[in-house]
Design goal:
Blueprint lengths: L3 E5 L4 H13 L3 E8 L2 E9 L15 E4 L2 H14 L26 H5 L20 H10 L16 H14 L3 H13 L4 E2 L44 H4 L2 H5 L7 E3 L1 H12 L3 E2 L2 E2 L14 E4 L6 E4 L4 E3 L2 E5 L5 E5 L4 E7 L12 H11 L3
Antiparallel strand pairs: 1-3, 2-3, 2-14, 4-6, 5-6, 7-8, 9-10, 11-12, 12-13, 13-14
Helix pairs in contact: 1-10, 2-5, 4-5
Length: 371
Amino acid sequence: MTDIKGYCDPRFAAVREALAVLLDKDDVGASAAVYVDGEPVADVWGGYADADRSVDWERDTLTAVNSTTKNMTALCALVLADRGELDLSAPVAAYWPEFAAAGKEDVLVRHVLSHTAGLPDLPGPTTVEELHDWEGVTAGLAARAPEWEPGTAAGYHALTFGFLVGEIVRRVTGRSLGEFFAEEVAGPLGADFHIGLPTGHDHRVAPLVPPPSLTDEYAADAPPGPDGTRRKNTGVTIRVKDVNSVAWRRAQIPAVNGFGNARSVALVQSVLANRGSAGGVRLLSPEGCGPAWQEVFRGDDRVLGTPMCWTAGFARFGDAFGWGGWGGSLVVSDPGSRMTVAYVMNQMIDRERQEDDRGMEIVTAAYSGLR
């Protein structure tokens, strides 16, 4: 069995065991973490940081978590809302006047956070490099008409979520989403998570490993819709080789290009599960956490082609909430038990070819520790 390193409270030994099984079966390198009451009860890792299995996955290894980043971006908006600087029920145009164009004057901040704004498609980028043009992308979104009446339907905003929320944060604070997150969230918590990875951290990054039998040309794509057709909801093809590039690390694409490990993901998100604080640091009031699990929309998601419950920034699953990333990373928070569970790995799995329950196996193991 793979050697697992790190700390694990005896009650949560099943998490260590589950990670070992995954590393023996599917994973190359991975980490898992559980926080309860804002404190770590499991922080474990193992395996390798490279596909050749020549470099160990270490305590401070980072990797791209793709759409698990959305949890971090949403938290930034909730912090501002809790401070009274952002009203989730206000029109986006109250903070970003140009956004009122093309019939969007009634799009609310809450609509953007819940994937109901009607803007699931980018305004025209066709290359990954064009995603680095923040002003160009956000100006295009401001000029674009919604695809449906905002608030009446949901459609996963795979890439646009980060640009929309990020521009709102920039208009309110004068700082980019990555800067705000670093200074107001990660910094106070001491969390090793980055949206826009600074120079000097590249040696710690475990590149993503494409799914078995596939190459680094493997690309993110929208799932088939209810009618079986496939919707290109991102407007740009993002490949594993793009996510593994230095340019991707330096960019700020706040829906998808965060870098961290299970410890940092769980630490940050445990704030929402623990009534606003973690490790003795308070980021929100208890009331300010509520929007993370309060339902905004329930029904079929037009992009994902599946029933979803969206809150202000998160997907809700029963009494828990969170979201995962392309390839397998996942974070789930349960405010009832004040527990947050995260799983971060470098070996991707193509869910169209192979079922991927790795993250949920870690979550299930964590719940066994509460009994």
